[in-house]
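re: the backbone from monday

yeah here it is again, tokenized this time
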């Protein structure tokens, strides 16, 4: 029986090896057939354990192979899943870092451009445009889409021209700015001269392009005035660079404000609203106060720049007379302007106009006097802060003057 389980079964060669069959040799043919069938049955019975054993072995092998396949598939799947998760995490991290890097690049680019343009000074131009635009308004019906479009066309064209004359001034003053204003992009090396010239040139082209598309002669004249005086104020060529002279610098500063303000008023009154240009009380006061603020700004901005101006031979009024004297002149001019505005406000025909303009200018005069008493001219941060304060006074003036009726 042990040989059967190991698969070494040998077929019997004669019937004599089977008990009970040897005595049937001499039987008939039918008996022999019966013997053969019995033999086959016995052989089948003897072979079944061997077949069963082999089948069990094959089934066991198949199970083991299947288990190995399943394990391998599971391992491959798990490794693939881990690889996918790792790649997903890596891609997510890479995309996050790329987004942060892109955002940082945009912020840095904006910061450099902001310091190159210095838009705080352009707010003064916006104030001038807003002032003369509101002076041209006679009734609420004037606030039409055409009126707003005309005003924003002026602001857009002047903004690009403003970039031109601020940029050309930095190009001409790059060595001085390395002493006085090292944070500016050209002085710090963040912008090359080529980059600065590209920005300057494109800005001038866009500004004149807006004027040409609008078709307004007053607007073109205002932009041309800014272009010409912005160039002769800064460019270091024969008979130019008027900023070296206190008198000529004052002329340029007045030209930046007074003639241009007239052209803005001319544009809004005639080109946009279709009315004749008339010299009214508000526009006269606006031109006078703009001239006064232009002189004050031109004088005061040189107070923090004395070291660099002395080094490069720029004989500004602050260099010649000293900080305290020039500062006193600036405060006196502002107070004269406020007293004049109060006098004009008292002549207003409407009581509400009289109360607002007189009260507003009295408040600004007192605020200026108090602020002037607290400034330390030896501290550059104090002088820079007061310079910004002067611009804020100009913006407040732009809101008060149109209310004089």
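seq for it, each position gets an aa:
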């Amino acid at each position: 029986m042990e040989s059967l389980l190991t698969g070494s079964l040998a077929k019997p060669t004669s019937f004599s090896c089977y008990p009970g069959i040897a005595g049937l040799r001499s039987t008939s043919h039918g008996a022999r057939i019966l013997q053969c069938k019995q033999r086959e049955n016995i052989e089948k019975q003897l072979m079944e354990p061997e077949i069963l054993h082999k089948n069990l072995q094959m089934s066991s092998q198949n199970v083991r192979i299947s288990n190995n396949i399943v394990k391998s598939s599971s391992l491959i799947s798990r490794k693939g899943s881990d690889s996918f998760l790792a790649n997903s995490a890596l891609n997510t991290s890479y995309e996050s870092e790329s987004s942060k890097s892109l955002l940082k690049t945009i912020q840095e680019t904006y910061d450099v451009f902001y310091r190159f343009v210095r838009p705080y000074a352009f707010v003064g131009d916006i104030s001038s445009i807003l002032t003369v635009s509101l002076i041209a308004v006679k009734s609420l019906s004037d606030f039409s889409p055409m009126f707003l479009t005309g005003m924003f066309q002026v602001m857009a064209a002047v903004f690009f021209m403003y970039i031109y004359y601020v940029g050309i001034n930095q190009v001409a003053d790059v060595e001085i700015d390395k002493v006085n204003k090292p944070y500016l992009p050209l002085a710090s090396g963040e912008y090359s001269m080529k980059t600065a010239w590209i920005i300057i040139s494109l800005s001038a082209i866009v500004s004149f392009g807006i004027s040409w598309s609008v078709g307004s002669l007053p607007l073109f004249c205002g932009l041309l005035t800014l272009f010409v005086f912005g160039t002769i104020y800064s460019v270091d060529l024969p008979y130019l660079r008027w900023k070296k002279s206190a008198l000529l610098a004052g002329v340029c500063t007045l030209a930046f404000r007074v003639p241009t303000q007239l052209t803005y008023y001319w544009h809004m009154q005639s080109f946009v609203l279709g009315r004749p240009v008339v010299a009214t009380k508000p526009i006269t006061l606006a031109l006078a106060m703009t001239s006064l603020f232009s002189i004050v700004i031109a004088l005061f901005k040189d107070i923090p720049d004395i070291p660099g101006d002395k080094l490069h031979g720029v004989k500004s009024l602050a260099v010649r007379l000293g900080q305290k004297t020039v500062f006193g002149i600036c405060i006196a001019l502002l107070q004269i302007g406020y007293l004049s505005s109060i006098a004009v406000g008292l002549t207003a025909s409407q009581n509400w106009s009289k109360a607002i303009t007189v009260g507003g200018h009295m408040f600004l005069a007192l605020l200026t006097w108090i602020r002037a008493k607290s400034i330390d001219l030896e501290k550059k941060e104090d002088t820079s802060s007061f310079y910004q304060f002067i611009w804020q006074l100009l913006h407040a003036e732009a809101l008060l003057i149109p209310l004089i009726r």
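Residues 153 and 210 are 7 Å apart (CA to CA). Residues 1-29, 69-73, 75-79 have pLDDT under 50 and may be disordered.
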